[in-house]
Design brief:
The chain is of the alpha/beta class. Helices cover 34% and strands 11% of the residues. α8 crosses α9. The longest helix is centred in the first third of the chain and has 19 residues. The chain is extended, with a radius of gyration of 47 Å. InterPro entries: MUG/TDG, Uracil-DNA_glycosylase-like, Uracil-DNA_glycosylase-like_sf. Belongs to the uracil-DNA glycosylase (UDG) superfamily. TDG/mug family. Homodimer. Interacts with AICDA and GADD45A.
Length: 374
Amino acid sequence: MAELSVHREPPVYQEPFYQNYNPPAQNHYQELTYQPHAREQQQPQPHPAHLHHPQHQHTIQQLEPSVRHPPQPSAPSQVVTPVKKKRGRPPKQPVEDGKTQEEENEIEAAKKAKRALNRFNGMSVAEVMAKTLPDVITYNLDILIIGINPGLLSAFKGRHYPNPGNHFWKCLFLSGLTDEQLNFMHDQSLPEKYNIGFTNMVERTTPGSKDLSSKEIREGGRQLLDKLQKYRPLIAAFNGKGIYEIFCKETFGVKAKNLDFGLQPYKIPETETVCYLMPSSSPRCAQFPRAQDKVHFYIKLKELRDEMKGLLPKIEVEETEYSFDLQLAKEDAKRMAIKEEQVDPEYESCGGLHGDASRSSPLIRYQISAVLVA
């Protein structure tokens, strides 16, 4: 029997179904799509005619896990380092086109000069430093306030303590030295109304006291001594510790160490003027930065003035003896502590200790010596 041979055209090539296979959304890899590696692309693809063979089915089943979850190329690890913010002023902007660095510097200098001119109503700093601040002084004042030297704003306005941040005028009112809140515009009226005057150790105007030389300050101390001997105020009040340290060394020949504020042990030579030291009224005073920190010294200044003028009554403390029962004092403290608690079981039992304790506990006697205030 003759064999029949049938010639069949090979089927058109189709891509294996597993290359376009999208697995159902069963896990968190559902968004991944298969992208074959270069090696997989180079491998020969199985012929579609043999895909129905059981061996090929077994091969497909083995390939399915890797097809579903192809290995992804690991991204290189990137370490993000935090950017540290630089302190200080931001860097200058780059110079604009057509402008050189010198032109930029000139523009910046003109802006700074304009700000300085506007501060003193068109006057330069050199012109303000050429001005002086006249003293507000007369004979036989109660208090003469002594500063180090005029500042720029004081010289420009021609007034004492015009800086709005200065604590002088506020402390003067809070202490009772003035009966109303005044400001620098009232400095000329203080000698007549409150018998208070103003002067400075050095007459030259500077932006700060650090601009003064030691020679100027020593010379100013000698001029201040002549001024005090001439006008003879009741109290010479030094507004700042540094002023009195130099004056004390130049006048009394004593190097002041660990100075205490308040009444000083020395009087102005050939006068009855006493020296009183109080902290600087400047807000830059680190030891007493607030006005309320300095009011105490102004109050003591007022008390010293009233005492020297005889306005305060003389206080005589007579010798007195008194005693108290120490045991009763302890019991009183104990009862006060118990009252603060919610449960007070011993409160009633402590009430019967008054009569017995006073007879059994020792008495402590204190004696005060007589003190006469002249």
